Amino acid sequence: MVAGPALAVSPRGGRHAPFVTLSQPISALTGTQQGGRPLRSASMAPASNPPATPPRPVLGPPVYVVGGGPGGLAAAAALRGRGVRAVVLEKAPAVAASWRRHHDRLRLHTTRRMSGLPGLRMPRSFGRWVSRDDMVRYLETYAGAHGLEVVTGVEVLRVERAEREEDGWVLHASGGRRLTSRAVVVATGAAHRPVLPDWPGRETWSGDLTHAAAYRSAAPYEGRDVLVVGAGNTGAEIAVDLVEGGAARVRLAVRTAPHVVRRSVAGWPAQATGVLVRRLPVWPADRLLLAVRRATVPDLSAYGLPRPGTGPYARLRRDGAVPVHDTGLVDAVRRGRVEPVAAVAELLEGGEVALADGSVVRPDAVIAATGYRAGLEGLVGHLGVLDRRGRPRVRGARTAAGAPGLYFVGFHQPPSGLLRELAVEARRVARAIAAGGQPPAPYGVHGGHGPDEAPGAARRRGAAKTRRTPGPTTAPPAPARTAETPETPDTAQTQGTPETTAATKASEATKATEASGTTEAAEAAGTAVSATPAAPAASHPGEPPRFLSPKALPPVSLPR
Fold first, then answer.
1. Which residue among 347, 413, 477, 553 has its CA within the 20 to 30 Å range from the CA of 320?
2. First to last CA, the chain
3. Where in the sequence does UniProt note compositional bias of the Pro residues kind (predicted)?
4. 134 Cβ contact partners less than 8 Å away, ≥ 6 residues apart
5. 118 or 276, which is more confident?
6. Helix (H/G/I), strand (E/B), else coil: 482
7. Structural Rg of the chain based on CA atoms
8. Strands 63-66 and 31-32: what pairing?
């Protein structure tokens, strides 16, 4: 984990830019390495030859992206790749805040090759199953490599429609800030608020009870009797971690028997199967997945973990519950090291726990791996855009009725993997915003909530082009703009177009900056001038945008 101030590591290594926080000047954009380590890999290395002509800077009012996790960063990078200025607002001191809080054992259940975000692949040094710390380093590098405008220490409290329709949206943020934007992307994540069941007796229970969100390692539980509540992926991983970490006894309280799948069989990852079946109807998809499970995972019914009666795909659509990827649970259950028991019914006096089958246990500690909520009610709940579970009714390029310009990324869990899905959603959102809010052609319906924006023939052609295109790299940092070398837009590209006015304002702002040496003078001209150039839009709709690696994060100004 990175200690000290949050750093965005440049792919060149050794130089980086600190994220802007409220405790430091917005214009403080350069620095030297003080902590952490840069990533070095072929996929993250800069191109040897910089472009001959720097692309035009991103100008104009920003689109605000709420959340500095993978969904927010991917959306901002995709927007930037299409020439749309995006500012990421993150309430934590650094990006990837939720990933930093995960337990030490965490590794992705999706492969490295299918977990990268648009424009930057994960290096081979991460291995096939990426660890928590490597994921944090990747997200830090991603923000710096794409020159994203990231403002930390700002919490968006509420999003409302502006009084005038042409003004779009108003964001009420911490510190009394009031921000306006024609479009808003919410990417705070589905696992935002831990959920602790309201068990009878919970308020007065004297035992050691904690949510899995606070679990880091098995060290505090060595030699203790631990009851893990919840048989999802988090509960299964914690149970195995406790066994390997020296817990005296580990029981796993199961309310609904999970679908357990091997993470990989003969080199074939479960994620790849999910990619293949995600477009199939529920019945044939379940038939295929159940056949694979029967052939690879033994029946654990005799050990207290029966096979579910509902297919994995049907349950995913109904409850949003993904299968449990086996990282040692099957072996631990068969060896008796993890004991499945009935669900928790009540918390009794004296630290005892009553189970649904009538039995009573007295563990030394209870860890509730009972899930999370998106926690969007206070932010957008008043807009009628959430379903009964508190998740967005729509996703990707679609917007809810009465909320044009309000997009959501990273709240849908498909069988193909969350990171892969949010990367797709980010591209679609960027395409819709760049097109003036017009979504692509209608898609079919699929998944637990909202429309499934299934790609058609156009996207398949785009995917084919992507396969023929060399892997994305990042170019070396662009030289910082100085008064002696002002950067101006290409007049040949702006003359006689709607961008002419913006280019003129940018030129005026640049002159004002030269005269005063401050970004405030540039803002006085009516525009925000970014010192970071943006890559031009991709030449083909299906081809991912190319990005440049700036030397420093561009200036960001938020009203007080």
1. 347
2. 32
3. 48-57
4. 122, 126, 127
5. 118
6. coil
7. 25
8. unpaired
Structure tokens at 235: 């509960």
SS3 194: strand
In this structure, what token pair is assigned to residue 120?
């930057």
Sheet holding 7-9, edge to edge: 7-9, 15-18, 31-32
pTM (predicted TM-score): 0.69
Region of 175 (left: φ > 0; alpha: ψ -120 to 50; beta: rest) is left
Counting other chains too, the contacts that 106-111 makes at CB distance below 8 Å and 24 or more residues apart are 106/131, 106/132, 106/237, 107/131, 107/132, 107/327, 108/135, 108/419, 109/233, 109/263, 109/270, 109/271, 109/325, 109/327, 109/417, 110/269, 110/271, 110/417, 110/418, 110/419, 110/420, 111/269, 111/271, 111/272
Residues 316-365 have pLDDT tens digits of 777 777 888 888 999 999 999 999 999 999 999 999 999 999 999 999 99
Check pLDDT > 80 for residue 212: yes
466 contacts: CB under 8 Å, gap ≥ 6: 542, 543, 544
Q: Which helix (H) or strand (E) holds 177?
A: strand 177-181
In the predicted model, is pLDDT for residue 460 greater than 60? no
Sheet-wide strand order for 184-186 = 149-152, 86-90, 63-66, 184-186, 406-408
User: What are the b/e assignments for 267-301, b being 16+ CB within 10 Å?
Assistant: eebbbbbbbebbebebeebbebbbebbeebbeebe
